[in-house]
User: What shape does this take?
Amino acid sequence: MIKQRLSGILLHPTSFPGPYGIGDLGAEAFHFVDWLAKAQQQLWQVLPLGPTGFGDSPYQCFSAFAGNPLLIAPEDLLKRGYLGYRDLAAPPFPQERVDFGPVIQWKKALLQKAYEHFKTHEAPAAFKHFVEEEKAWLHDYALFMALKDEHGGRPWNQWRPALRDRDAAALRNARKRLIDIIRFHYFQQWLFFEQWRALKTYANEKHIRIIGDIPIYVAMDSADAWSHRSQFLFDDQAKPVVVAGVPPDYFSPTGQLWGNPIYDWEKMAEDGFSWWIQRIRANLRLYDMIRIDHFRGFYNYWTVPGDAQTAEHGEWRDGPRTDFFDAIIAALGDLPLLAEDLGEPDPGVYELRDHYSFPGMKVLQFAWDSDASNAFLPHNYNKNCVVYTGTHDNDTTRGWYEKASEREQNYVRRYLRVDGGDIAWDFIRLAMASTANLAVIPMQDCMNLGSEARMNTPAVAAGNWAWRYPPHQLTAGIQAGLAEMATLFGRNNRPKNA
Assistant: This one.
């Protein structure tokens, strides 16, 4: 349970400005931390930082442990002597959206050039230490990525059977054959983690805590599913027997078919959930707090047949519940977890959350479709929760209000005693003033942006995760407004003289 009143911003690093087509962990990230501190904020929430696969979604990554090479800052490679100034001449990428295809091609070529220079010299001790320290996941991840390249990018369950099934001799031969590509992936991961840890250290020195995000499921096409296949529900041809999703809901009348493989929870329990312990331990080194996406799945989860086309027809199955969290806490101690407990309510989910005093989530955009009993209205909050104006899965607050029904708009105006002309900042004020101990605001709402700045539309495959802001939008006026609210509503708990 988090007892301080704190506030901060939800902003993924890909959204930072810069000349390289995508935000990264370089100068603009450090500038944002400085800006956040001057705004008297103490939280920075990010989306998952893993290497993205199909659809460029941070919730569908090639690894639950690796970092995204697209976030590596090119200027750092210049400082290290791996690149020259001419190498950093980027194409004229669009500045307000990420065009992932060209960006991926350019960044991969840039990192390859840096690696070619790197391998002509003795590897630094820090690199060797990283490879040894992270070998539990790094070796399989790097081999997985090298084999994906060798198989033309096809998913691992379409590889040659010996490699698909991890035949020991086939893996040994692959490690020898692909050693240079494997080391290239070591190199990229070393750079990512060096840069991220430097940024996190800087943020913590500014008294800013970083909230990370763990999706409950891993991607079907991931090093985790390939290297820990026995802990998932696959058939003997490595096809998922059932896959994850949610039934019809607020976002989609046919449900959301996520397609992730489902854990064999009974099998995981046999070794005390060791893979999960390793995963959460790794994330606790990256973040100060962790939001668990789809927390409900630990209580019960929706399964859909592996060949289904929608998520409409499936069944609920019991999750591992207290057995899971008791094992994790026994191994790691008290957990700074936030529970994403949205969706159709189930009393058991809330009982599981409250048993461990994990803060739940409140989203103001969900508060206006019924009456005064709506759990998302601030007068119904307890203190142990996190309030958001909206999340990465919602429209921006301005976009939401413009599309809302007249009934909802009228309820908002009456509740807040406003005319709706500055709805994003009205919601920010409501969140900041609420009794929720934590308040997190998407940067798009601070900038009063419309639907063009939406980060993700669930159940829509294309066009997501691409929003970026130009430098001029990170204004002193927004900074002053947030600072005033942090002070006014008791959320400015930074040490004096900080």
Summary: The first strand starts at residue 6 and ends at 10. The chain is about 40% helix and 10% strand.
